[in-house]
Amino acid sequence: MTTHSSGRLPLARSCLVVLLTAAAASGCRDNMPAEQPLARVSGSAVESHLIISTATPRVGDDVVVLVRVDAGPEVQPIASFTARLHYDPLRLRFVREQDPGDGAVRVLNPQDGQVRMAGIAQRGFAGGKLVAVRFTALANNVSEGLAVTFDELHAIDREDLRRVTPGASLIGGAW
Question: CATH number of the domain that 110 lies in?
């Protein structure tokens, strides 16, 4: 590396490093679903939702699918889950988990047409946000064929919450 008498990088190179760092940081949350309030669920009801970052992506665009569970006020936060996110492999190609940065532990096992998922959060998943998965759009209508099924779903008080009912898929909904 070439240094000047002051021991600093040349100004142009320093500016380039700053610009590239800013561009990389701003790209970390591209196509993330927009923040919205939780769905209103009453009593002990539990609903699952799939929130998609964009309803009409172009082929080649990244799309993030968030699996969220909303529960009524009588239900403790979700502590653990195992689930399957079903998708049409002709419409979406798995890329990776999109880390929400909440400190929860998650494991994903992508397979053709489904992503098997498991997660645990000692204090519960914040806002019911269980997992976010990044895909590449292979077609325009990516929501066709999207569904989530739960093998296990438990609250922090160990209550079995597999009574979860599918809610409406929200496009551009809560992240």
Answer: 2.60.40.680
Go through the chain and tell me how many residues it has.
175
The whole-angstrom separation of Cα 135 and Cα 172 is: 15
Shortest CA distance to 128 belongs to which of 94, 164, 95? 164
In one letter, which amino acid is 137?
Answer: A
Q: Where are the alpha helices (DSSP H) in the chain?
A: 11-26
Tell me, yes or no, whether 64 and 135 share the same domain: yes
Sheet holding 78-86, edge to edge: 105-111, 114-120, 78-86, 147-155
Which pLDDT tens digit goes with each residue over 62-99? Answer: 999 999 999 888 899 999 999 999 999 999 999 999 88
Name the domain count of the chain: 2
Domain match, 75 and 133 both: yes
Instruction: Supply the pTM of this predicted model.
Output: 0.74
Distance CA 17, CA 40 (A): 46
Residue written as token pair 């079903």: 86
Centre a 10 Å sphere on the Cβ of residue 38 and count the other Cβ atoms it contains: 15
Reported as a single tens digit per residue, the pLDDT across 116-171 is 999 999 999 988 999 999 999 999 889 888 999 999 999 999 999 988 777 766 66
Query: What's the token pair of residue 170?
Result: 């929200």
Is residue 14, in this structure, part of any structural domain at all?
yes
